[in-house]
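Let us practice reading a record.
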Amino acid sequence: MGSHAAPLVARLRRARSRGEWEALRACAGHRNRGPPTALYEESSTIDRSKDGRGHTRGSLNQPSRVNSYKASPRLISLILTAILCVLPTFGAGQDAGRAKADSFGASVREFARRTYVHGPPYAQTRRFGRAALPTLEAMLSDSADQQSWPTVCSMISHLGYADGYPLLHQFIWARFKGTVRGPQLSALRVAQQGIGFIAAESPDALRYLLNGTDPNYWRHLPWSESGESQESVGLEFARLSTSALPFSQNPLARATLVRLRDTSTIQPLRSQAERGIAEYDTIAVHGLSWYMAHVEAVLSGKGGGR
């Protein structure tokens, strides 16, 4: 024991012998006599017997080198008091959290249900962040919101999170059977093209788009377009897959666009691939946010030069 600690221990021993603990407890409002109760009381002893080599070892019936403790009444009282003080605040915090989540979900739904001539604004959609995905997923599952499905699919794609890929893939391949038309068909087209934004974060989404540039890939769709052959639907969705590739900004996507431009025997795919290469290079130079703002400005008639 260090030279500084020894005098302190001696003073504590003298204080106990002179009854100073009683005075201290009286000042604290305790009626019991004796030293203050520790928060934790040691409740086990360890047999420090010697083994055959003279080394200290613990008893086989007691935990060696580890002291077990039991909570004193004082500690229990402190814990209960703390719990009683915290519970009302905790409940209020939960209610506030639920109210905030409900308000956020309502904002997402209100934004998705608006009418847009050229789709929802890219920058405004991005501000909702990943937290909007559960609300958008619920809207895709609710037939009452089908008029908003094209906007919902566009929002999921513009958010650009890999979490959004399964939502759009399932919507395209598992949501419908039989003939689709109207907002259902519009939403399916938006979903397919929009996966390009997600492909920048999701290798699965990129592979899906690369496969989708082949019209034969679409022969097994579980739905059909009213008045159109499956061959025609396959060609259209191969074109949409091609048009989605520039937004991924992946070198493999650009290489695929070059291959389609140079080797495809299908004129619509060659033309789309050539446009896609130009889009890819523009986004690479200026960034996706700039490109989307430029496209929105052109579509709205406000111009938007480089």
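A brief commentary: Residues 23-49, 56-66 have pLDDT under 50 and may be disordered.
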